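User: Show me an example of a complex going from sequences to structure tokens.

Assistant: Sure. Here are the input components:
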Amino acid sequence: MKLNRRGFIKACGFMAGYTVLGLNMTKVAVAATMDFVGLRQKSVYDADAKIYKIRKSQDNPMIKKLYNREDGFLHEGPCGHMSHHLLHTHYVDRSSRVTALKEKGYKFNF
Amino acid sequence: MKPIEGVMTQTNAPRGIDPDSLFFVQVDATKCEACGTCEEHCATGAIQSINEEGIHQVVDPAACMNCGQCLVNCPYDAIYEGVSYVDEIFEKLKDPNTIVVSMPAPAVRYGLGECFGAPTGTYVGGQMHAALRQLGFNYIWDNEFTADVTIMEEGTELIQRVKEQGQKDARPLPQFTSCCPGWVKFAETFYPDLLPNMSSCKSPIGMLGPLAKTYGAEETHTPAQKIYTVSIMPCIAKKYEGMRPEMADSGFRDIDATIDTRELAYMIKTAGIDFNALPSQGPDPILGDSTGAATIFGNSGGVMEAALRLAYEVLSGQKLNNPDIKVVRTHEGINTADVKVPNFGTVKVAVASGLQNAAKLCDEVRAGKSPYHFIEIMTCPGGCVNGGGQPVDPEIRASLFRSTVAQINKRFRARRVGA
């Protein structure tokens, strides 16, 4: 395709505009991504309100069975002995490797 | 490497390896157009330009939180996934001696349909359960059940922490949620001094793994050593979490394999299942049934709202008539709220998604100026529904406009480097 003079100037205009506005355009694109996320978020709240018959964790009959004071698997209740064994954890300080990288000259945001 | 829903993926099944040594996402240097989009979306700065041409790489796994926001926002499909268990799961599903258990996260059911042509966000929970059954999973257990368990455990922990303030050896406030594996690694890496503020509760999937191999095995009379648990997540960082060496409280590995929403769609397509023709089915009982409080875990602010639905009733002794606590629902940024609870007082909460926002709240806590009782953090903007393992927004790859802007930016930068 042959590009005529008018087309060439038009293309130059677009190029210049995009270069100058690049930053703002990126912001617009990020906002569009949030709309996409917004659609998924709305669907989640709609399902909570309309599809799920029970809406509080403590009202779930299978939760009541699990924590049943007499014969439930976690009969001591939440944060009991068995809960602490199976359902709770501990965390590890992982800062040393990033500190070592920073000392080598790498830059990170935090 | 093979393409899985538009994302190149290395299929391997690492076992017994320190997950800190693995790249869960990395840039394919031959595809990188040096546009820098990944760097804009990376909170920690782990992905950066490595040469004068502006080719990007994740420089070290230690600085990468494995969230995959770089991957889902790359306009050139240049970022690949480093770990995938799909081939191994297909083998286990065929093996009659293995009892394969499905454990899908809440947000998966709001993204999976998009891979089969449904509009963005379509709820496909029922078809998802049916598809898992057709794939040959022996038990259709659901991670939403343990989202409810998480509320019981984490809500109780919060109430305990509030009550023990002023006593000797009291655990500190605010309490941070610990459901999000990107956030957990972030706190461990950049704010280790705040680890006493982290809830000691495992995430829902961290709870379902060990419950499946103990309680589930007992209830279904299945030998626990035959159970193979498959965590299905909207998330790449969950692959890291599943490999944590401490996740072995059931006496076995609690989580044997982790895949994301895109990989589940790939498995359904590979098995030749007509997803859109599937009936809506429920999960299997015992570890399957869930509530609205569990499903909202997929959104930023969801764990907070679900926890408040419990805390309100426990602290006030009254029934919460309207379970909608809309003030904590968060689309982006930081959201704070004072929730008035009768017979107790005010519960001060904060919700943030995106690690830059998390850091602001962490700095407040570090300075001793945080007024909150409970803080929810999600790594991905908007929460798990926007996770790094969800189907990619078609706009990002399809938009000629966006990629044109990126290309011009690239030329602009290249010229600047040369000058």
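The lines above are the inputs; the final block is the predicted structure for all two components together. The domain at 54-110 of chain A is CATH 4.10.260.20 (G Protein Gi Gamma 2).
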